[in-house]
Amino acid sequence: MNVGMQRSVVLAQAAEDLFGQVLPWLIMLLVGVVVGGAGIYLVRRMLQGGHGAPGEGFTLDELRRMHAAGQLSDEEFERAKALIIGRVGGSASAPNEIGPHDDDREPRG
Q1: Whole-angstrom Cα distance, residue 3 to residue 7?
Q2: Is residue 93 helix, strand or coil?
Q3: Among 84, 92, 95, 101, which is least packed by CB within 10 angstroms?
Q4: Containing domain of residue 46, as a range?
Q5: Residue 106 falls within a domain, yes or no?
Q6: Do 28 and 67 have their domain in common?
Q7: Is the pTM of this model over 0.85?
Q8: Cα-based distances in Å from 79 to 1, 43, 64, 94, 108
């Protein structure tokens, strides 16, 4: 019986030593995973540009509401719609800006 108690004590001490050696590595691994995950999240967010980024412009739904409310003329709405569709579709034929073009101005007399 005395030998059994000694084995239990020796095993308990070995387990404590092992735990004491492994615990710091487990903590460092956990910290590494958390920091790495946060880094990956930030890099992906930067590469995707984030949703709702400043300077993104209007959505087609917002333009429709503005047009219905009378804030945009028919011509302005069509230009803005073409610009948005060109941006989404990747078309190079969409106008570069929303606003008056040289051919839209009245001739000076």
Answers
A1: 6
A2: coil
A3: 92
A4: 1-50
A5: no
A6: no
A7: no
A8: 93, 35, 12, 8, 24
